[in-house]
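pasting for ref
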Amino acid sequence: MIATDTSAQNLPRFCGIPTFMRTPLASHPSEIDIGIAGVPYDGGVSARTGARYGPREIRNMSSLTRAIHHVTGFNPFAACRVGDVGDVPFTNLYDIEQAHEDIRRFLRPFFASGKKMLIAGGDHSITYPVFQAMQPVHPLGMVHIDAHTDTWDTFAGSKFTHGSPFRRAVEAGLLDPRRTIQIGIRGAQNSDSGWRYSLESGMRVVFIEEFDRMGVEAVIAEARRVVGDGPTYLSMDVDGLDPVFAPGTGTPEIGGLTTRETLQLIRGLSGLNLQGADVVEVAPPYDPSGNTALLGATLMYEALCLLAESYQH
């Protein structure tokens, strides 16, 4: 097994090119086993913009990342070759469907080469073209941490906003709703269509009140039961956490997960057949402290550990 070149991690954290977790820059699938990509796009938001700056600030904060996980002792950089493949080069930011095509075009060669990808958004609309770029042979399962189900139909004339990626993915046969669990859902809505679609299509929806009653370990067990051993994707919207912990996001909802609960939840997914993961909706302009971007970087490291573990197997 060839490991990641981690020489840049020996530099002072304020030196060098600020790649994700100070991994090497990579331009071709043959250079990596796991790629980390930025998708600086927030043209699909329904409220506050700013997630377009997410990848850049997550990169900055990821310079604080260290290699060896303090709980498991696992070093993802020693397990395989991890590289920063850069940002999606957008040719048309003002047309959602054309922007999504740019995402597909950029990511497809990596997935076609059998690579696992870790994505930093961007708003949550990007996950649908990520699924399209993956071109799974069978519909994916998904563990989805979020305040919102993101299963609306149309908003303000578009079917491809950050409120609809998983409805579109089910319709396209890319996502298996019966192998999908949505965790942390909360907040009032002007329409219950998203909640109803998730439930009626067969998704397991864990509203935050049920999460509190069940406890983290029981929710982990439920997530593992739902997705089973089939190919699975992990999608994490930082608004799934309480805005006390993640104020830098476009559609904050109070009463969410804590950082400790979220980390425990993610770590409980070890051993799943993960094919990819994303962290989305980090909007740095709303958090001058940088803490939300630090959260994003930490969630990406935790996801990287899961992907590297599954790569080994």
